[in-house]
Amino acid sequence: MENLAGLMNACPDPTPGVSAHLFLTLVNTLTNAKCKINSPQNYPEDFSSKLNDQDEFDFVIIGGGSAGSVIANKLSENPKWKILVLEAGKIPSLDTELPSLLFSLQQTAEDWQYDTEPNPNACLGIKGNRCRWPRGKCLGGSSSINANLYVRANKKDFDLWAAAGNEGWDYESILKYLKEIEDLQAPDLINSENYGRGGYLPLNVYHSNEPIKKAIVEAAASLGYPMSSEEPNLGFFDALQTVEKGIRANAGKAFIGRVKDRENLVVALNSFVEKIVINEQKEVQGVVVLIDNKRITIKVRKEVIVSAGSLNSPQILMLSGVGPKEHLKKIGIDIVQDLPVGENLQDHAAHVGIYIALSDEAVLPKGNIIDDLYQYFMQGKGPVGEIGLTNFMGFINTRNDSIYPNIQILHVLFDKNDNYLLPTLQNVMGLKDEITSIERQVNQKSPTLKIVPILSNPKSRGRIQLRSKNPFDKPLIYANYFDNPEDIETLLGGIKFILKLLETAPVNKLNPQVIDLQIPGCETFEFKSDDFWRCAIKHVTTTLYHPVGSCKMGLLSDKGVVDNRLKVYGIKNLRVIDASIMPTVTTGNTNAPSLMIGQKGASMIVDDWSHGHSEL
């Protein structure tokens, strides 16, 4: 408002005429439009100040993220059940609602701001040799800060889960739960029978018209990977997005906000769960939670459901005495149940070192930012509500003719002399200054593009451990990228495919130049040689934000933490329902499978308690 007052005071005519009135009307209209986007009416009331020690609920859900929001929605359909969601963060800010600002949400109060532990095989081009692992710390969890990409995954992913002993998790069995949550709105897919309609999650799609995209589509088709209108096994496509009228549809808004008037559902924000209370009979009694510097115990009549994500869920379990016996003993925590909690950690490793200078003809001319903002706030359209080329992606297999991909490909496009997206992305990734300075120098002279190959099915496994028994100490994250050398060779295959793509006639006419980023530590290798790329992979590969698997669903004999009904082995009335239960990471972005896990998990709870509770 001070800036607005300054503008008005700078006008030479002190008489408030028609032009001044029109200007203020415009400002007021834009302000109202902005407030509508981030209206408190979209979210539930914060119940935290009304909670008291020893309050009792039927179900307590730890975490109001993607899966937790879906679970809260499903369980609260029964008006006889009293549901409490405990969320460590706040209501998402206005910035989270604008899809184009996705990268600027990292390293903020809405991000847990985790870092991996140093590893000689990875993150060597990142400051401190630690990859940054952003996770959402607000209602909606990581669905409030991600790229809004809705990628279901490959059928084989789920069939492999079932084949490993997880009955009921094959693709044909889980498909109904995907469709239950979906509300397909994309006009060009309106006749598709492959997606659900009428669910709580709006699904739309954005199609970029950038010349470089059109060239890549032609080039990929010439290499055997055609463009598809829907998510393919192999090929390129524009992914669906959890966006409605240019506004992010995070899980908290979509699944809790839309049923916020249910009297049996309450959400406590800024509520930090310290541990789960488990008695000597290994029955869950409740949770200990810190709210406004006051520590209280919430009692539970039926179940505690841990949905805090792949980093926080294992941390909470271990703080509660459920985890690897030797590790907990070393930390000084009494053992309740010896289970491999924190093991089996997986992530999609993304190589960000293929940086390409393009001719000016490769990109469309951009409009004025003021015009873009007006178009967005008044019409819900334009670049502010879009994510450029980021939803344009491909799935390929670099090793054989299988339709099961081993590489995902993403694209990030930077306009010439970009002063927002490029520096923002460099900052949140934490790339070392020697690398970022070259990227900026090149971008000052030409548009640039990162084509990012991603390891779809990593062989390497990491782990989560406690730093101490203080719940406020961040967990230790051992990503262990490239512990299995096969992962490096698979990514190398993805890089070679991209280099081949750049040599095709459709792309080559846009004069793509792969830039030598002069990566410290890789100077002795010939640029573009296999050994150079192997070195580059270890230096400038980072997370695609998809950690999973740390509370593995599987047979107890196969190092499972939860069974196929997501019940924690050996503990009564305790489940884990989020991405941490994935036995293996799915192909593509993991938010859609996480939402499905929430829906299927909640449905199993309803079934168990509605038709006679099945004890562990």
From TrEMBL:
Name all Glucose-methanol-choline oxidoreductase N-terminal domain ranges. 136-159, 309-323
UniProt xrefs under PROSITE patterns = GMC_OXRED_1, GMC_OXRED_2
Instruction: Answer whether the UniProt record assigns the keyword Flavoprotein to this protein.
Output: yes
Domain of life, per UniProt, equals Eukaryota
Q: Which GO terms describe its molecular function?
A: flavin adenine dinucleotide binding; oxidoreductase activity, acting on CH-OH group of donors
Q: Which UniProt keywords apply?
A: FAD, Flavoprotein
Query: Which cofactor(s) does the record list?
Result: FAD
Gene3D superfamilies attached to this UniProt entry: FAD/NAD(P)-binding domain (3.50.50.60), Glucose Oxidase, domain 3 (3.30.560.10)
Chain sites annotated for binding FAD: V273
- Which InterPro entries does this UniProt record tie to the protein? FAD/NAD-bd_sf, GMC_OxRdtase, GMC_OxRdtase_N, GMC_OxRtase_C
Family the UniProt entry places it in: Belongs to the GMC oxidoreductase family.
Task: From the Swiss-Prot or TrEMBL record, give the protein name.
Answer: Glucose-methanol-choline oxidoreductase N-terminal domain-containing protein
